[in-house]
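=== RUN LOG ===
request id: a7f3
mode: sequence -> structure
chains: 1
length: 151
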Amino acid sequence: MDTNDAIREVIALIQPEVRKNEVKLRIDLDPALPPVQGNRVLLQQVLLNLLINAIEAMAAIDRVDRNLQIISRRLEPSMVLVAVRDSGPGLGKHSFEDISEAFFTTKPNGMGMGLSISRSIVENHGGRLWAEPNSDRGATFQFTLPLNDEA
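=== RESULT ===
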């Protein structure tokens, strides 16, 4: 599957939320990205979950500071990286292990299943999902996927 095409489809789907929440979206996709092995719909579900989480996390900060970035890169020798970087409150006192556990949520109406399911999907595709705090503010959620064998 073409990762960038899948990302662009999710971006088109999420545009109403981006506009409604006054988020500045920056897209930084590697144009030479080779294809990956994977179920397009499931991997788009992962990306959609990460984007919605980022938008919701930034709801409590000033509108002028709401920045969201989507990045795709090739990691040598055989992986692709997709990252969602936000300017929200960050991970706080929680580790990625905490927040990706089933039923863990920081949202008043959350079920705590999104990151857990996303992690399972990525791992079942031979990749890894993790999060890191940004040096300035916010967090970056990212995942890797193996390249298509024919790449």
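=== NOTES ===
The mean pLDDT is 86.
The chain has one domain: 3-146.
=== END ===
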